[in-house]
Amino acid sequence: METPMKKRREFIKTVGVLGAASTLPSTTPAGVAAEGETVASSAKLAIDGGSPVRKTGLRHHPYGPQFFDDVEKQELLDVLESKSPFRWQAEDSKVLQFEKAYAAHVGMKHALGVTSGTTALYTAMAALEIGPGDEVILPAWTWYADYDAIVLAGALPVFAEIDESFNIDPADIESKITKRTKAIIVVHLQGTPADMSPILEIAEKHNLRILEDCAQCLGGRFKGKYVGTMGNIAINSFQLSKSITAGEGGAVLTNDSTLFERAIRFHDAGSLRDVYADSMGGGLLVAFAACNFRMSEFTGAVLKGQLQKLEKICGGLRRNARKVREGIADLPGIKLRKTADQAGDLGVTVFLDHGTEARRDYFLRALRAEGIAAAGPGGSVILPVVERIAKKTTVHPLWPSFNSTEGKAIRYGSECCPRTIDILGRHGGVIMDPNFSEDDINDIVRAIRKVYMAMGAA
Ligand SMILES: Cc1ncc(COP(=O)(O)O)c(C=O)c1O
Question: Lower CB count within 10 Å: N or C terminus of the chain?
Answer without folding.
Answer: N
